[in-house]
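ok new one. same drill as before - structure tokens go in, u give me an amino acid for every spot. 297 of them this time. try not to just spam alanines like last time pls lmao
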């Protein structure tokens, strides 16, 4: 593939490695909000995204309003995956929307959401999530996706529209058909998505080259895992995501993977990782940088 045009637009060479250190699931519970605040103030992250339908979204938004320099986007949410801790759409409770299960909550899996959700209802919901964030004082820098639920031919248009109507970048990886096939799309869908993302880029949408994530099933040795993953990122722009939380009784009750979430937090609160990034030659950017590109186009 051709080098990412974002590199030149930000003043870097085609061989430079840029990374967005991104925290997911902010506002899902209190532990995630505190983790984001600690990490931002420590300088361990460069971006994050709020799950607007979740119970602690308002606390996350209040933190953003009080700290307007933070980099926070909207984590487009169409699923509520936990066993007993659930959330519902902002836009409607109508079962006919296909957004909710028999209990009135979002579906637990992306596959269920994609099978049942009406595309028009999805658009209304994603618009409501972005609009609520803005109304609550979040200077939203981008839109990304929870559990990849929007990565479906019926939903991707709604995802993009919810972002672009507010001139926000949408987190989408650039690539050829082989890249999308490796991500789980069938050959026909992958080919169509490759053509689609190329068109987006030609229209000025800043895209990322790679998605890399810290594990949620391996709480031990995460500093070394982070060093390895960061050390291997390619030239271009990488969206490097993890799910940090402070350790609370609430978190332990909600998430079976809580040990890894706590380990994610401690890893990026460590001076060792901060120094590793500083000395690695990797350039840390945020989605605010990509938003500036989009709004100049």
């Amino acid at each position: 593939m051709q080098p990412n045009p974002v590199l030149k637009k930000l003043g870097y060479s085609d061989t430079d490695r840029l990374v967005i250190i991104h925290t997911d699931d902010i506002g899902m519970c209190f532990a995630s909000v505190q983790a984001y605040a600690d990490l931002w103030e420590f300088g361990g992250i460069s971006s994050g995204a709020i799950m607007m339908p979740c119970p602690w979204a308002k606390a996350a938004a209040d933190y953003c309003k009080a700290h307007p320099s933070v980099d926070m986007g909207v984590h487009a949410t169409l699923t509520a995956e936990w066993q007993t801790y659930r959330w519902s759409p902002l836009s409607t409770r109508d079962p006919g929307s296909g957004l909710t299960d028999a209990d009135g909550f979002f579906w637990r899996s992306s596959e269920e959401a994609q099978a049942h959700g009406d595309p028009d209802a999805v658009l209304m919901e994603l618009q409501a999530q972005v609009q609520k964030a803005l109304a609550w004082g979040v200077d939203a820098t981008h839109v990304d996706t929870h559990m990849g639920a929007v990565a479906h031919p019926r939903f991707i248009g709604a995802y993009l529209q919810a972002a672009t109507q507010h001139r926000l970048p949408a987190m989408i990886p650039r690539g050829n058909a082989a890249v999308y096939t490796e991500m789980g799309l069938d050959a026909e869908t992958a080919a169509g998505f490759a053509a689609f993302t190329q068109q987006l880029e030609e229209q000025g949408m800043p895209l990322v080259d790679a998605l890399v994530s810290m594990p949620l099933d391996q709480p031990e040795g995460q500093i070394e895992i982070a060093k390895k993953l960061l050390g291997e990122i390619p030239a271009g722009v990488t969206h490097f995501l993890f799910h940090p939380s402070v350790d609370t009784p609430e978190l332990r009750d909600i998430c079976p993977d809580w040990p890894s979430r706590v380990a994610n937090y401690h890893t990026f609160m460590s001076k060792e990782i901060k120094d590793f990034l500083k000395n690695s030659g990797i350039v840390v950017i945020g989605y605010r940088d990509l938003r500036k590109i989009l709004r100049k186009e």
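The chain has a mean pLDDT of 95. and btw The two ends are 22 Å apart (CA to CA).
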